Every structure is written in structure tokens, then in C-alpha cells.
Amino acid sequence: MNSRGRFPPGLAGGRGGNFNPNPNYQNRNYQHQNHQGQRNSNSNVQVHQQQQFQQQQWLRRNPGGADSGNDEVEKTVQSEAVDSGSQDWKAQLKLPPQDTRYRTEDVTATKGNEFEDYFLKRELLMGIYEKGFERPSPVQEESIPIALTGSDILARAKNGTGKTAAFCIPALERIDQDKNVIQVVILVPTRELALQTSQVCKELGKHLKIEVMVTTGGTSLKDDIMRLYQPVHLLVGTPGRILDLAKKGICDLKNCGMLVMDEADKLLSPEFQPSIQHLISFLPTNRQILMFSATFPVTVKDFKDRYLQKTYVINLMDELTLKGITQFYAFVEERQKVHCLNTLFSKLQINQSIIFCNSVNRVELLARKITELGYSCFYIHAKMLQDHRNRVFHDFRNGACRNLVCTDLFTRGIDIQAVNVVINFDFPKSAETYLHRVGRSGRFGHLGLAVNLITYEDRFNLYRIEQELGTEIKQIPPQIDQAIYCQ
Ligand SMILES: Nc1ncnc2c1ncn2[C@@H]1O[C@H](COP(=O)(O)OP(=O)(O)OP(=O)(O)O)[C@@H](O)[C@H]1O
Ligand SMILES: [Mg+2]
């Protein structure tokens, strides 16, 4: 048997042992492979639109450039100035350490664009590079140039492939920082995702003078009202709170030309859709709407037909599941689940894990059991006080604890790079939920493992979800090769 297949003794879920919240936890030097030209999903129309856009941008930034086409001297001087300028600002960038982990084609199969191809403001480019982004991912290549032209977009791309920056970058580019009005609203379904997304906007826009505000339920309305007396250009939040502020006339959306709906299918579920429709009525009629998700059930079509105009549809999901995630199931009885989890903890090389349960009660019970077993664990669900939720989210992200037990509150959008294992302690009911849950590991094309505890009652669901996703969830073998989820 392959010796790599054996679980190293004592490596386990680390009973209090140290682990590394740094994503480079295996620190193997796998080369970032750029499979240029492998993907061929863009139509001629899009290429044309992109070229047209780039020409327009070039002309906008170089007035007279077209007329002075024959003036070679002027051209050379100009390009030398640009070149030496570009060297200066690039040399001064504070780049984070490179992430040397292996990445799958889900993020490397690009057309070979560079962020500079989009003629973004230099301050924005600086934020992008300082966040550690070297090149746009496939969904960013498709979305950024189109969003910059002002078109409505419905984009579907796999989990963890960079949808957030695919809308944040054009949003930040299109904001006029001299106009002190809300110009962009980004809607997300959960408070934690709102915090995470506003943080991404702040980081990408850190060299711009753009004011980002986050507003969600569970926080003081009065504080939000006070904050809105100050300039805000970009507002990120959950629909209920933003609608509340808009209805009270405190949050003025009449100049908001861009509405982003992240996890758009979730935002169109019955629980949110009425608020979304009401919110749209506060926006100008010529607004741009960008919808992003990894899953778009047919119900989204009605909304798209009603509210979006000449929508540009991007679909990068020729298959649904991520190439980097290996999925297993373990057939167990309900009363054996905790024992099975204990075995997983002792056998797997968990850097950080997220463990999903199907109810608030079960989250709390399981968290207690895990602690009794002697493993470190946090838990989070929507019935906790917001301050407490924020602390758990912040501390888990910073690596204060190895395991997090949660409800579907953390199923969508949450991005914690160090998570390499997801465990469905309770199996989900829908294929969408399953896909988003397992997508919490294997972020940005990295490797990950999903283990599903399956009871007799779950067996039909397992089969149905496998069919719906066109994927294979294999029976868990006695040994799991670390190479499939740890490098
Ligand atoms: N161009 C890039 N280069 C390197 N890393 C990137 C790039 N774009 C995004 N990332 C990183 O990839 C990770 C996943 O990005 P993001 O959260 O936007 O994925 P997503 O597509 O929204 O996933 P989900 O469907 O789960 O919401 C983040 O940690 C982000 O910083
Ligand atoms: Mg996302």
C-alpha cells in the first residue's frame, strides 16, 4: 500500500495542538499553472465588446491619442512616461507572501488577461495587487470588462473562484469619489457575508478615497443613521436593514446606479424577494444590476426577465462541483455519528474544518460533545447575539480554533482559506445547499475534502443529490491519501 496513505499517528484534529491559519500550510512549491487559452467559453460578441471597451478606455485616458497616431515621437515619450511610472508604483507595492499551494483549472484556466488590461484606476490596481491577486480568475475575466460597460449581468461560476472581486472591482472603478452619494449597493443574504464583503471592498479600495459602509440587522439602527450623515459611496448589507433605512428616507438610493446581488438565488427565495423588489423601487430606472451565484434555479429567470435589461449571461459551470474537492460518505446510524466524527478527527489531517448540522439545537449539542471529546471547537448559528457571532467569525478566521460547528448560516459565500475539510454531520436536503456547503473548502482552486455522514434515511437524498450535481460521492476508504486535500 502507498505509504502516503497512512494517517500519521497523533496528527489528528489536533487536541489543542498548534496549526497554521496561514493558507500555505503545506508550503509545497507547486507551480501556479496558467492554462492559457484552454477555456473557450467567450463568444465573438464578447471579444468584440471587450475590445471596444478597451479602445474606449484607452481613448478616454489618452485624449488626442487617436489623432496623434502619426506622431511617433509623442507616442514614445508617452509610453516611456507610462512605463517608468508603472515601474515606480509597482516597486512600492506591499505584496503579501505568495500562496504556493496547488490550484486547479477551476481558477487557472484563464484567457491570460492581466488586471492592467482593464485600464483600471492605478489606486485600484494597487489594492488588487496588494491583496495578492496576480491575474484575474476566469469569472473575473468574463465579468469585469462587461460590468465596466454598464451592462446588466447574470453570472454563474463555481464556489471560491473569485466572484466577489468580479463585482467589487468594477463597482470600485465606476464610483466617482467626488460625488458624496451612495452609488453602489451590494446585497448579500447573511450578516457575516456582509462583513466579509465590505472588508474585501475596503481592502481592494484601500488606496482610493471611497467610503464603504456595512449595515445589517442585529446592530444599532441609530449608529447606522448617524453614519449615513457622513459620506457613503458604497453600501454593503442585508436586504431587510437597507430597506428599512431606505423606507425611513435615511438612506438615499436615487443616485445608486449599480445594484449587486451576491448569492442572487438565495436573495430571490421567498424570505427575501419581497424586500428586494421593494428596494429596487428606490433605485433610478437606469440602474445596472449584477447577479452572481454558483447556483441559479429556474425561479431566477422570472426576476431576470422582469428587472434586468439586455442581460449579459455568463455561465462558467460546465460541471457543478469543484475539481479540487474529493467527496466521501460514511454510512452510519444516528447514534454512531459522534463516534464517527471522533474517528475522522483522529485520522484526518485537518487544518481547519467546518462541520454542518441541520438545526440550531444540534449545533449546540454537537459542539458540547466535541469539546467533551477533547477537541477545540467553536460554534455559530443565527440565534446567537450578533456580537457573539462576530467574535466567533473573527476568531475562527484568524485561526483561534480548528473546528467550527454551524448551521446553514455559513453555507454561502464564507471564505476562510485555511479550511481544508468540510463535514456534513447532518446531510443537507437540497443539492444547492450541498454544493455551497462543500464549497467552503477548496477555496480559489485549492484542494479540499468533504465527508458526509449518511444515515439510512439520507440514502435517497444522497443518491438524488449525486444525480442532480452529476458528481460521485464515494464511500470513505479506511485510509485517505493526504495528497488529495492537503497540498
Ligand atoms: N484573482 C485572484 N487571485 C488570487 N486569489 C483570488 C483572486 N480572486 C479571488 N481570490 C481569492 O479567492 C478566494 C475566493 O473568492 P470569493 O470568496 O470571491 O469566491 P466566490 O466565487 O464568491 O465563492 P462562493 O461561491 O463560495 O461565494 C478569496 O480568498 C479571494 O481572496
Ligand atoms: Mg461569493
Structure in words:
This protein is of the alpha/beta class and 487 residues long. It folds into 2 domains: 175 residues, 3-Layer(aba) Sandwich (Rossmann fold), CATH 3.40.50.300; 292 residues, Rossmann fold (3-Layer(aba) Sandwich). Helix content is 37%, strand content 14%. The chain contains 17 helices and 14 strands. Helix 15 links the parallel strand 10 and strand 11. Helix 1 crosses helix 5, helix 5 runs parallel beside helix 6 and helix 6 crosses helix 7.
Outline:
With about 475 residues, the protein is an alpha/beta fold. It contains 17 helices and 14 strands.
Question: How would you describe this structure in keywords?
Answer:
14 strands; binds magnesium ion; disordered N terminus; 2 domains; 487 residues; binds adenosine-5'-triphosphate; seven-stranded parallel sheet; alpha/beta; Rossmann fold; globular; single chain
